[in-house]
Specification:
The chain is 41% helix and 7% strand. The protein is α+β, with helices and mostly antiparallel strands. An 8-stranded mixed sheet has the order 11-15-16-10-18-19-20-21. A hairpin with a 4-residue loop joins strand 15 (1313-1318) and strand 16. Helix 25 runs antiparallel to helix 26, helix 28 runs antiparallel to helix 29 (704-727) and helix 34 (834-852) runs parallel beside helix 36 (888-903). The chain starts with 8 loop residues before the first helix and ends in an 11-residue tail after the last helix.
Length: 1557
């Protein structure tokens, strides 16, 4: 930089201005003269009288002569007061440039600049070291420095010549004291801080008032290079360059750039009047004033200065002995301080704050990483921050050596102090950690660099050379690297050039590591002490490597980095991650700590480093204690950073598959000659190693946050494997092949397993037990087969279930994450043995038993939240695998757990003791636990095997209500009063319609029942039958089916026909003789008189007529009888016809036993109502409350709002307009949308749509008629579930769906379309808000609808069947005006008229943001978009009033998705942490594949909302809300009739009963 300018060192050396004429005389003469002359001058200065204080020197000649004496007096010994008096006089006289004094001679007052220049040259004599009285000399030197400081600060008349002399004076005295090797306790060591501090302060003042010319800058740089063996020089340089940088950033990047805060005592070193151009010029020159700071790592360079060589010659020692000078043992610390200062500058330019997470060790250094607790990020110079202690310390920060500080948000914590001379380095375990508490910043996400930060190339142009050199300090590159022809030429040139620059003869052997230095060299050369010297420089190297990692991790999206920088950076990482011969743990830890986002930054070629990072993680994660790293770093932080890197590498094997890493540099820098190192490996072969690292990390991790991250990663890898196998795009290697390739092609002793012919596994690194060995110990050899998704799933279930009931059951955050992982594993579509599934269910049951059985003092809301989460996990497993309950033992275990949750104890506690449920006193752990157990029981009884229902997944309930059934009945009236309403057991409302539906042609006694209970609304139609199914079929064909079989017809022509004359008496009667008694009765003729004769004749005529009449009738009868068919229908005895009119409600209740007197009576000594209660539907408000009950959802509902953010966008309008056209979004975004859910028509959708005004519509769906399915009869009744289908879900292949490519996703804004997903336990609406100019355009869309193939994959196979539906009339909501059917993105959206909404809160809304440029995350206008995510649940009223949004920014979890160039996706989660820590499976910094993205996002959303509900004190499960509403309805509308009145009402009609003709 100053090559064309000459240095002033020769001028300084040849200058004789500090010599006096008295030096030509004998010393005794000069001493006597000085003593005699100086004493009067000194007495005059110290006199208090005004007259005596006046100077005795009047003329210029007198002053000059006196100054010759004073100049000599400054060289005298310090045993007298002469030197002190000389200092008093000169420090008084130089103030002539500041203010006039009587004690200053008039010639000096008249020409102050000329005399001050001479005085400064004379004062150099004071700083020549004296052997005795060092304390006096120190105090006198301090006085002179203070005076010079004051002169520079306050003088306004100083000329350029004086400034130049002043600068040369400071350079000369610094060089006099600091250039020579340091003497312990000497003058240089005591004055170093003040000397260099005054030099820099005066230099900056000179830059402001009289900018130094290039020769002065060059001289300062050359001289400063000779002083670098003093720690104070590097510390003061770091302090001033940080202060300059703070000022530089203010005007370079503007006020929006994160300020670089430095202590006030450092900031004042830079004059306030220094303009911006001067600051920029000064900053760059001061930055390079220290020359190359990497030279500090090479004692050979530091010891070759002239003063070192001069001392060497004076001692007459050997040349190499100077390298062993005691003062050079401080170089490791000085080198580290220089690297730490550069690191602070880099962080300042990147706009990230730093936090020191090291452990104190000797020599004191630490490994830094970006802070995670500052918002906005604020770079903090740790070297300059004041130290916080119990007592206030006012010592300047840079005067406190050997101390490492930790900067937190509010305080600055210090580690333990240390001595000035560090002893031999020892690895000792520290008892405390700066970030050991999980409640501190360790769990918080790392801050992002400033969006306006400079490019990586720009930062490396400034600091790259130093950092790259420092990152390879004491590394040796072997010649064997050239043997691979596949390496690019540019990379070879870089390696060769770099190797040549660091293997100079002076420093070649010094730069070797202990493991790379032969034993012969170590014995022959006493310079090398492998126990203390080489290891010390690892601190600075570690700081440089960590800084480089932060620089490259700050790469912006789409930014290009020069290949030369990438190549050198990868070489630094390869060296730092080497673990073959020697593990440099500080460097390894620094790289890991600062590289969490390395694989997320789209660095070209970064994937070639995957094997090296895997090997490093194999060294760290399976080691439970990390005892060898505790001396350098907090183990928890190191493990967390390692897990972050692991999360970013997990998808790589599946993503790249059989792609080979052609430029893999494995073994290129090793002495080993094995050809195996040159073999490229496939990414797929690294899968086993990654899985082993993941499993090993889970087995050894103790930190809750780290454990949760690992659990999220497990679901990621299992789901990705399952989806990969499902599509069959790649064929994975067998476990034997993958193991062989991964272990043989990588000579990594720590990879975990060494396969031999005997099949044994052996850990080759003694640090810890390898994960594969632990698996062999726990699960045996079969557990190693993790090349399939089923193997991974089984392995994960075994690990999680084992620890859930052992180590984790006391930790709430880990327990919740483990249960979420098990829930996610239950949804992975992989076939596994039923034993493994039952293991998961059994472990959850055991977990519930343990938590419920804990002593009462341990029961808290948090504990009960864990139990509730366990019940939810149990429901997920049962609904996903309902066939598990086909096994008796599993069913018994699950039902026992449900009983335990509801009643507080099990009925069967042992093999002998059984307590019946009726004898137990209900004592659940809490009402929340009881509610969760009841929900599980409902899930078992009503959902298992019955979901999706015929209505589709959008509605587990029937889509029928009173209005629908009335329309299809044979009633002329549409009044709802035709229904009878009863309540069973105070929990079920029965709405009974006694008329058959119109589509039922059989006039059998039937009743249609709407059953409203805690689990929802269900419609059943029931018919009374007493015959088998075949008889019913014949009965429908033959109306006379009830008539018995006829008798056989008579045959008159059969047998003999006799003509018999019938007599009143037999003939024998006439033969009996009469007796007297017989003759006592006279004959008729004997008694007949004339009168009687007349009457007798009349009688005889009448009898004759009668006989003729009867004979005629008989003849007619015989003729009619002969013509009559047998049998005679008039006289035939036939059974009565069946009844046609029934009171079926009364029959049904009676058959079920609800009409007994016991059922109608209230239980004694109980506040519970009777088992059967009649409701009075005529009361006002009854049907409103019934409709209110129908609007209460049966499942938790979630709402997700998805936004698309293009690069550089900051306003909400720009973001909302992105989804209007497919040209504005990436194709992967549209694919991602369809992977979340399937499209539904808002106007016909019976589920949640994202807004209460359009959700849960019952009568808005059109279906097709068909035959009902008849369920087998039970107790004389046959049940026909009335079903209804939504066209979009039951038959998606026929529904017209908008092609998302035509709209960019904006069609799913919730106005007409939305994305929807539902399972048995939850439903989610995905809304893509779009920019709406006006709401009147919503009904004019003429877009065409098409079928989307990807949608079919999301729908269960049952949904593709065409079930029976009832054609319903459209709801009145179809006819609403556009003003009543607004988009959810409109703030003024109102409910349809006449519709009330129950309080549905609290709700959790989740935002998903697709961000093209990762740096734009900080600019996402969340607050401006809050009005766009209204769901209507936020309203404070239940009327049709405008909805009011009350959601705050902190309450909304946001999931950012950033697509990488590799096709993978980087995840950032913010706002998803709460009382129960983070939520899985997606965690901040994770990288996921395209296949698993939709599933993982959806599962994370479900878990976030469940966590929020667990945290909420006001949340009640849906079945509890419905139960409470049913109780309220019973209380308000109970028909309080006496038993006689109730029975009478059963026989009365409830409405006009007229049939349609």
């Amino acid at each position: 930089m100053y090559s064309e300018w000459r240095s002033l060192q020769l001028i300084i050396q040849s200058d004789r201005g500090h010599m006096s004429v008295l030096h030509s005389y004998p010393s005794t003469v000069g001493k006597d003269v000085a003593n005699a002359v100086v004493r009067p001058l000194g007495q005059g200065l110290n006199s208090s009288s005004v007259t005596s204080n006046e100077s005795i020197l009047k003329t210029d000649k007198e002053v000059k002569w006196t100054m010759e004496v004073l100049c000599y007096g400054l060289t005298l010994p310090l045993d007298g007061e002469t030197v002190k008096l000389c200092v008093d006089v000169y420090t008084d006289w130089i103030m002539a440039l500041v203010a006039r004094r009587d004690s200053i001679p008039q010639p000096i007052v008249k020409e102050p600049n000329l005399y001050v220049q001479t005085i400064l040259k004379h004062l150099q004599n004071l700083f020549v070291p004296r052997p005795d009285y060092a304390h006096n000399q120190i105090s006198l030197c301090m006085r002179v420095l203070v005076a010079v400081q004051k002169l520079a600060r306050e003088s306004v008349n100083m000329s350029r010549e004086t400034w130049e002399v002043l600068l040369l004076f400071l350079l000369q005295i610094n060089d006099t004291l600091l250039a020579a090797p340091t003497v312990p306790g000497g003058l240089a060591e005591n004055l170093a801080d003040k000397l260099i501090g005054v030099l820099f302060e005066v230099w900056f003042l000179a830059c402001t008032r009289c900018f130094p010319t290039p020769p002065y800058w060059k001289t300062a740089r050359e001289m400063l290079a000779n002083w670098r063996h003093h720690p104070a020089v590097v510390e003061q340089w770091s302090k001033v360059i940080c202060a300059l940088t703070s000022r530089l950033l203010r005007f370079t990047y503007g006020p929006s750039f994160p300020p670089f805060k430095v202590p006030d005592e450092d900031a004042i070193l830079i004059p306030a009047e220094m303009d911006n151009d001067c600051i920029a010029q000064t900053w760059f020159r001061v930055l390079h004033m220290l020359s190359n700071p990497v030279d500090l790592s090479n004692p050979a360079i530091i010891s070759t200065t002239p003063k070192f060589q001069e001392q060497l010659l004076s001692v007459s020692g050997m040349a190499q002995e100077m390298i062993q000078h005691p003062c050079l043992k401080q170089l490791p610390q000085i080198f580290f301080r220089a690297m730490r200062g550069i690191s602070c500058l880099v962080d300042a330019f990147l706009g990230i704050a730093r936090i020191n997470i090291i452990r104190e060790r000797l020599p004191p250094y630490g490994i830094s990483r970006p802070r995670s607790d500052s918002a906005p990020p604020t770079p903090v110079n740790r070297l300059n921050m004041p130290q916080a202690s119990n007592t206030m310390n006012t010592t300047p920060p840079h005067s406190r050596r050997m101390r490492s500080v930790t900067v937190t948000k509010a305080t600055v914590k210090t580690s333990s102090g240390s001595t000035a001379h560090p002893p031999k380095v020892t690895h000792q375990t520290s008892t405390t950690s700066p970030l050991s508490s999980p409640n501190q910043t360790s769990s918080e996400p790392r801050p992002l660099p400033a969006p306006t930060r400079p490019k990586v190339n720009s930062v490396l142009n400034l600091f790259g050379q130093w950092l790259f050199d420092a990152g390879l300090v004491h590394c040796r590159l072997h010649n064997g690297m050239n043997r691979d022809g596949s390496m690019t030429a540019s990379f070879i040139q870089i390696l060769l050039s770099y190797k040549s620059c660091i293997t100079t003869p002076a420093g070649l052997d010094v730069r070797r590591k202990p493991s790379q230095i032969s034993t012969e060299n170590m014995v022959a050369n006493p310079l090398f002490d492998a126990n203390e010297f080489p290891d010390n420089y690892e601190a600075g190297r570690a700081e440089a490597c960590g800084t480089l990692c932060r620089i490259f991790c700050s790469k912006k999206t789409g930014e290009e980095i020069l290949p030369v920088y990438l190549s050198r950076f990868y070489m630094v990482l390869i060296q730092g991650l080497q673990i073959n011969d020697y593990i440099c743990r500080p460097v390894l830890a620094s790289i890991i700590l600062n590289s969490p986002a390395l694989f997320c930054s789209d660095l070209k070629g970064i994937d070639v480093l995957v094997p090296y990072f895997i090997s490093a993680l194999e060294t760290i994660l399976p080691d439970r204690e990390l005892s060898k790293f505790k001396a350098y770093v907090n183990p928890t932080e190191l493990r967390r950073a390692s897990i972050h890197i692991l999360l970013s590498m997990l998808p790589l094997p599946h993503h790249f598959g059989t792609v080979k890493a052609e430029v893999l540099l494995e073994g290129k820098f090793s002495n080993e000659d094995s050809s195996l190192h040159d073999k490229p490996v496939t990414f797929l072969s690294l899968k086993l190693r990654l899985v082993n690292v993941l499993i090993g990390a889970l087995q050894t991790e103790t930190d809750p946050n780290n454990t949760q991250m690992i659990l999220g990663a497990m679901l990621n890898i299992v789901q990705d494997s399952a989806l990969l196998e499902a599509i069959g795009s790649q064929t994975e290697l067998s476990v034997g092949d993958s193991t062989h390739v991964s272990l043989k092609s990588h000579s990594r002793n720590s990879s975990g397993i060494s396969m031999t012919s005997t099949g044994s596994s052996e850990a080759t690194t003694p640090d810890s037990e390898r994960p594969a060995q632990a698996l062999l110990r726990d699960y045996g050899c079969p557990a190693l087969h993790t090349d399939t998704a089923s193997g991974l799933l089984i392995r994960s279930i075994h690990l999680v279930t084992q620890r859930l009931n052992s180590q984790w059951r006391q930790d709430m955050s880990i327990s919740l994450a483990a249960l979420e992982l098990l829930s996610g594993l239950a949804k992975v579509k992989v076939s596994v043995d039923s034993t493994d599934r039952k293991r998961a269910v059994s472990s959850v049951c055991s977990y519930i038993v343990h938590q419920c059985s804990r002593p009462a003092p341990f029961h808290s809301r948090d504990l009960h939240s864990m139990i509730v989460a366990a019940f939810q996990c149990l429901c997920v497993w049962l609904t996903e695998h309902p066939d598990m309950l086909n096994e008796k033992d599993c069913l018994i275990e699950v039902l026992e757990i449900v009983e335990l949750g509801i009643s507080g104890s099990k009925s069967k506690t042992s093999d002998q003791e059984v307590r019946y449920k009726g004898d137990k006193e209900p004592n659940p752990a809490s009402m929340r636990v009881k509610d969760a157990a009841e929900a599980t029981l409902t899930c078992i009884m009503q959902l298992l095997g019955a979901f999706p229902s015929p209505s589709g997944p959008a509605s587990p309930c029937s889509l029928l209500n009173e209005e629908t059934l009335i329309k299809y009945s044979r009633l002329t009236s549409t009044s709802k009063n035709h229904f009878r309403y009863f309540v069973l057991d105070n929990s079920i409302i029965l709405a009974m319609l006694e008329q058959p539906l119109g589509n039922d042609q059989n006039p059998c006694p039937s009743v249609t029942v709407l059953i409203r209970g805690m689990s929802g609304r269900h419609a059943w139609t029931m018919q009374l039958y007493h015959q088998p199914r075949g008889s019913r079929a014949s009965q429908k064909c033959h109306p006379q089916a009830f008539v018995p079989e006829p008798h056989p017809p008579p045959k008159d022509d059969v047998g003999i026909k006799y003509n018999v004359k019938h007599r009143p008496f037999p003939e024998e009667v006439d033969k009996i003789p009469f007796v007297k008694a017989d003759l006592s009765i006279p004959d008729l003729h004997e008694i007949v008189t004339d009168q009687l004769e007349v009457q007798h004749e009349k009688l005889k005529k009448l009898m004759a007529k009668q006989i003729l009449y009867e004979n005629a009738l008989e003849k007619i009868s015989e003729e009619r009888l002969s013509k009559t068919v047998f049998p005679d229908p008039v006289t035939e005895c036939i059974p009565p016809p069946p009844a046609q009119e029934f009171q079926t409600a009364r029959l049904l209740l009676s058959h079920f036993g609800f009409l007994s007197l016991e059922a109608l009576k209230e239980p004694g000594n109980s506040c519970r109502p009777p088992n059967l209660i009649a409701l009075d539907s005529t009361l006002a408000g009854f049907f409103d409350d019934i409709g209110y009950l129908d609007l209460l959802p049966t499942r938790p509902f979630e709402t997700v709002f998805i936004f698309y953010m293009k690069p550089g966008q900051k306003t909400s309008q720009e973001i909302l307009k992105n989804v209007e056209s497919s040209n504005n979004v990436q194709s992967n975004f549209l694919e991602f949308l369809l992977s979340l859910g399937w499209p539904v028509d808002v106007g016909k959708h019976p589920g949640w749509t994202g807004h209460v005004s359009t959700s849960w519509l019952i009568n808005a769906c059109n279906g097709s008629e068909g035959k009902e399915q008849v369920i087998p009869s039970y107790s004389g009744f046959s049940f026909h579930p009335l079903r209804m289908e939504i066209g979009g879900l039951a038959a998606p292949q026929t529904e017209e769906t908008v092609a998302p490519a035509d709209t960019g996703g904006g069609i799913f804004n919730g106005e007409k379309k939305a994305l929807y997903y539902a399972d048995a336990l939850t439903e989610i609406a995905f809304v893509v808000p779009s920019f709406m100019e006006s709401s009147t355009d919503s009904s004019e869309s003429g877009l065409t609808f098409q079928e989307a193939e990807t949608q079919m994959d999301l729908l269960p196979s049952l949904l593709k069947q065409t079930p029976l539906t009832l054609e319903l009339f459209p709801n009145h909501s179809e006819n609403l005006s556009n003003s009543q059917r607004l988009s959810p993105t409109q703030k003024s959206k109102r409910l349809p008229l006449g519709r009330t909404v129950p309080p549905l809160g609290p709700e959790t809304k989740v935002i998903v943001v697709w961000v093209e440029r990762f740096d734009d995350i900080e600019n996402f206008p969340l607050h401006d978009l809050l009005p766009e995510i209204s769901t209507g649940v936020e309203t404070t009223t239940n009327s049709s009033t405008s909805l009011r949004t009350t959601t705050s920014d902190k309450d909304v979890p946001v999931i950012f998705i950033h697509p990488l160039k590799t096709g993978l996706f980087r995840i950032k989660v913010q706002g998803a942490t709460g009382k129960f820590s983070m939520v899985i499976p997606l965690v901040d910094g994770m990288v996921v594949s395209r296949r698993a993205l939709g599933f993982l996002v959806r599962q994370t959303i479900i878990n976030i909302c469940r966590r929020k509900r667990l945290e909420s004190d006001s949340y009640n499960p849906p079945h509890v809300k419905r139960k409470q509403k049913i109780v309220d309805i019973v209380h308000k509308y109970r028909n309080k009739l006496l038993e006689p009145e109730f029975y009478t009402s059963l026989f009365q009609e409830v409405g006009p009963k007229s049939l349609n003709p």
